[in-house]
Write a structure and sequence with these properties.
55% of the residues lie in helices and 14% in strands. The protein is of the alpha+beta class.
């Protein structure tokens, strides 16, 4: 049993709200599928749509949400935009999530 007077240092409420919002992004299976594809490398929208057998507009919409959440980044090459995971933290979150559900 824990001590009733034990002090727990929680982040400020604003940070907790941001964290909840961050994790809510992972609550959509299409976004998870996109992140899993991007964990394998950099792809353009058309390639992601083809891999996931979905429409380009649906993928673009979800990529916009992922980009706003700073989970993916884009790189322009001529007329094409190529997407990848924003950083190693995102890759780690996805990898650990997969590992956790497979335990």
């Amino acid at each position: 049993m824990t001590e009733p007077n034990r002090k727990i240092n929680l982040p400020p409420e604003k940070e907790i709200d941001r964290l909840a919002s961050f994790f809510s992004i992972f609550g959509d299976s299409t976004r998870i599928r996109i992140l899993l594809v991007l964990a394998d490398g950099e792809f353009c929208v058309a390639d992601i749509a083809s891999i996931l057998e979905m429409g380009v507009s649906a993928i673009s919409h979800q990529l916009r949400i992922l980009k706003q959440a700073q989970l993916v980044r884009s790189r322009r090459n001529g007329k094409n935009l190529f997407y990848s995971l924003a950083d190693s933290h995102v890759h780690s979150i996805i990898s650990q999530g997969v590992e956790h559900i497979n335990e």
